[in-house]
Amino acid sequence: MDKKIIELKNMTKVYVQGEAELKILQTINLDIFKGEFVAIKGPSGSGKSTLLHIIGLLDKPTSGKYLLEKQLIDKKTKPNTLAKLRLKKIGFVFQTFNLIPRISALANVELPMIYSKLENPKKKAKQLIKMVGLAERANHVPNKMSGGERQRIAIARALANNPEIILADEPTGNLDSKTGSQIINILKELNQKGKTIIVVTHDDEVARVAKRIIEIKDGRII
């Protein structure tokens, strides 16, 4: 597990609001290795979700370097390049699920594969939904599913393009403790299969499952 998959060097994120500068992340130095299970933990407003969004190529750092599998990501990286990298290398699991409510669970899981022009997206989507234990719910729309079922479908969708990295932002935040444990167990199993898992959480129990905990406060790793 000595291959660096993510390298952040002296990274900052600053938002400018009129005359004021809001420093969200300050001098972040962080290496994450292939196959790790890492928890990023901190209170609300600490910068942990912003950090995850930068790692997930949904946002760009203001300064410093970000290397994703040795590829430099900075302010000059084109949106088209970021979109291709996101589609190929990163799977996202959000607290609010971010599923399309009007289409079936199966269609939600198929979508990333259709964008990637993969063959047999329906067949693979069915396999992924079966893997998260919801084969019998594949044709239901998300609005007719429980929170735990929706989060499992979100995990299946995150795996659609077989990404190296799974990013989960408070994946148990909207779930009861029993359902949350099921979601964490799925993430643990994925990590055992070789996926790099990065979970943002403020929950000590979720963080303890990780092999490494990174604590962040006021935009700094402490």
Automatic annotation (TrEMBL):
The keyword Cytoplasm is annotated on this UniProt entry: no
Keyword tags: ATP-binding, Nucleotide-binding, Transport
Molecular function in Gene Ontology: ATP binding; ATP hydrolysis activity; transmembrane transporter activity
GO cellular component entries: membrane protein complex
Pfam families: ABC_tran (PF00005)
Alphabetized InterPro entries for the sequence: AAA+_ATPase (IPR003593), ABC_transporter-like_ATP-bd (IPR003439), ABC_transporter-like_CS (IPR017871), MacB-like_ATP-bd (IPR017911), P-loop_NTPase (IPR027417)
The ABC transporter domain, residue ranges: 6-222
PANTHER family membership: CELL DIVISION ATP-BINDING PROTEIN FTSE (PTHR42798:SF6), LIPOPROTEIN-RELEASING SYSTEM ATP-BINDING PROTEIN LOLD (PTHR42798)
Family classification: Belongs to the ABC transporter superfamily.
Listed name of the protein: Macrolide ABC transporter ATP-binding protein
Source species: Candidatus Berkelbacteria bacterium CG03_land_8_20_14_0_80_40_36
